[in-house]
Structures are given as C-alpha cells and as structure tokens.
Write a structure and sequence with these properties.
The chain is mostly beta strands and 393 residues long. The chain contains no helices and 36 strands. The radius of gyration is 19 Å and the shape is globular.
C-alpha cells in the first residue's frame, strides 16, 4: 500500500509504517512490497506461522501464470464461466474458470496500472498516464479513452457503461460500446491519500463509488446524478498523515445493504437505496470487506480478521493469529472465510468462531488483490503473477 501526496502538500519525506509506502508526487514509488524487509528489527514483525490442525480440506484445482503486477494490484474478475485477468506488462487473459485453460491471451500494447473490469462482453483495463482501454469478448480492442490522471482503481462495467475513478478523485462514465464520455463528477482530493484503489461497484442503475477522504458515493448510471453520499471514515488528527481516511477496496452490495471500510475509519453498512446508516464500528483497514447472509468480514491493518453480525454490527469474533502479515480482502464460502498474506499463503477460518481451519501456499509472493469466487472455488492472484483456483471443503 502506498500513499500519494498531492502537489499542495510540499514535503519530500518518505515514511514507512503499518505497511504503507509514502510516494511524493513526481517521484518514483518505492518498489518493495514487503514492509518489513528494510527494517527487520521493527516491533511490527509479522507473526510466525504455527502448524494448523486442519478442520477443512483445501486444494489447488489449477494454476496459471499471468504476469507480474509490479507496484500495482490486479484483481481477477469472474463472469459466468470465465476469469479475466491482467498484468503490468500489458497481458490480458480470458481463462476458463473450471479448468484453468486459457481461452485467449493478448497484450494491450502498453503497461497497465489497473484491471480487469468486465461484464463478459466488455473487458476494460487502465494503462500508463491514465489511458483506458476496452476490448470485446474475443480480445479485440474496441476503443481507447483518456482519464484525467493515473488510474489505480479497477474500472467497473455494467448496464452498458464503464465507470472509471482516477487519482485526482474524478469519476467518469464512458459508453461501453464507443468509449464516448457520458458524464463525469469531481470531488476534491485530500492533500494526502493512500496510493491505492478505492473500488466501484455497479448494481442495477447505480454505481457505488469509494473515494479518497473516506466518502462512499452512490450515483445514477444514466446521468451521474448523486443519489446520496456518506462518510465511512472522517479525517481526524493534527497532521495530514493522521487525517488519511480513504475508502479501502470495493463497496459490497448484498440485498438492501451496501458495506464498506475505510483506513483510519470504520467498517459500516448502509441502506443501498437511501444511504441511511445501519451500523458502524471503528476499524482501520487498507483492504476491502466481504459480506454474506449473516456476517461482514474485515481484515484490519494490524493483521486481525474480524466478523460482525450483518444485522446490527455486533462483533462475533476476532482472530489475531496473523498479526502484521498484511492480509488481503477476505472472501467467504459456505462455511469458511479466507485471506491471503504477504508471503502468498492463503488462510482459511471457520465462519462460526474464527478458528484457523486450513492453510495453503502459492508462489511465495504477496497477495494484495481482492480474490474472487468461481462457483465453489476461490480465485487468488499473486503479485508475481500466479492465478490459482482453490477448492475448500
């Protein structure tokens, strides 16, 4: 996770803490993705992994090499029977979710910074200097558009519209067939923000947009008119660093609820139609939440994994066995919830009591991207470019 300074905040300091890398605008981003590598004596050492007495069976169904993510994060997108994925070198792949077989693989012709967004018919990625590229279901380029600044958030595709958020807090809607701009809206960017990717979720006629500054915005897809806007994190403190309160990951819409989490903020659920708060609990996270019929799951910046009752927000359990291991966005199945960590391990917990149920390794590199579900399987993508399908029983 990195932090971006807007040009209005004039400083050349570089700070490392709680796994965050500080990057001054106009300067190169620190390349290390292991926040502990440069200071092995830090008090925030990652917890050593202890032997697990399995209460669940997990196994790798298939594995496919995609390409390295470099300093970016590429989350797999599952649509129907296919997984769409990308890499920093411009690789875009369509893979059969059941077998792992590549349906097609192309190169976008430019280095990529975000992706993949897809509804199955339109595949959208973001490239260097804010270029937005769309391809059809067969991998043929459909159009190219230009965002106002760098894009790190995965573009969202739905209802014939592509919604893109750039680092300057501008949200743009493009026609999925032509790339023509339909509308845009601008929110003021804080002086200091996480150099990360607050997500966008499209459900029916609404786009739910996570923003820097801890705001969650619901807008109408047809014209960009705001339906409502709420605070998930409120900037507090006397310094700009203390006041960072950005939305982390993508908002999750389930039934009538939309849930989200913010760095140095809260985990909260709202009425998706009106934005009326349902509940909120203090929590700081730099990754997104998972939601199922009963619980909301959040991994905090200290490596704790928590489950909250979806109805009311009561704390159900919190597991701290993975302290400081830089956990990914959680994902849940029928009886387990899983997270990846900075060494490429995937950990599985009981949804009922939070006990560690199983563990499986990947390629040893960090898992920063949000995982996805393909039927009964979990799909994870590592920073070194391994895409894996995991079955958990």
């Amino acid at each position: 996770m990195r932090i971006k300074l807007n040009s209005s905040l004039m400083t050349t300091s570089k700070i490392m803490g709680v796994g965050l890398l500080l990057a001054v605008s106009g300067c190169s981003t620190l390349s290390s993705l292991n926040p502990f590598a440069s200071n092995p004596s830090t008090r925030n050492q990652p917890a050593a992994l202890k032997e697990v007495k399995p209460t669940a069976t997990v196994r790798t169904i298939w594995s496919e090499r995609v390409g390295k993510a470099d300093q970016y994060s590429f989350a797999p997108a599952v649509v129907g029977s296919d997984v769409f994925t990308a890499a920093a070198d411009g690789t875009i792949m369509r893979i059969n979710a059941a077998t792992g077989r590549s349906v097609w693989s192309i190169n976008a012709g430019t280095k990529l910074t975000a992706g993949v967004g897809s509804d199955g018919d339109t595949i959208v990625v973001a490239g260097e200097k804010g270029v937005v590229l769309a391809f059809d279901g067969n991998g043929k380029q459909r159009w190219k558009a230009q965002a106002s600044s760098e894009v790190l958030s995965t573009p969202a595709v739905g209802q014939g519209v592509v919604v893109v958020r750039s680092l300057d807090n501008r949200v743009v809607a493009l026609d999925a067939e032509t790339g023509t701009r339909k509308w845009f809206l601008q929110r003021t960017a804080p002086a200091l923000t996480l150099r990360t990717s607050p997500g966008i979720t499209i459900v029916n006629s609404t786009a739910f947009v996570g923003l820097a500054g801890g705001r969650l915005l619901a807008v109408m897809l047809n014209n960009g008119a705001p339906r409502w806007e709420v605070a998930v994190g409120d900037p507090r403190g006397t310094t700009e660093l203390e006041r960072i309160a950005d939305i982390s990951g993508s908002p999750v819409v389930s039934g009538r609820d939309v849930c989200a989490v913010a760095y140095q903020g809260r985990v909260a659920c709202f009425d998706a139609a009106s934005g009326t708060p349902r509940w909120a609990k203090p929590l700081s996270s730099d990754v997104g939440v998972a939601v199922d019929e009963r619980f909301v799951y959040a991994a905090d910046e200290r490596g704790g994994l928590s489950a909250f009752a979806r109805d009311g927000g009561t704390s159900i359990w919190r597991n701290t066995q993975l302290a400081n291991r830089r956990l990914s966005t959680p994902i849940s199945s029928s009886r387990l919830v899983a997270v990846g960590d900075y060494q490429g391990y995937i950990h599985f917990f009981s949804k009922e009591d939070g006990s560690l149920a199983a563990r499986i390794s990947t390629d040893g590199s960090p898992i920063l991207a949000a995982p996805a579900s393909a039927g009964a399987n979990f799909i994870f993508q590592t920073q070194s470019g391994t895409l894996v399908a995991i079955a958990a029983e």
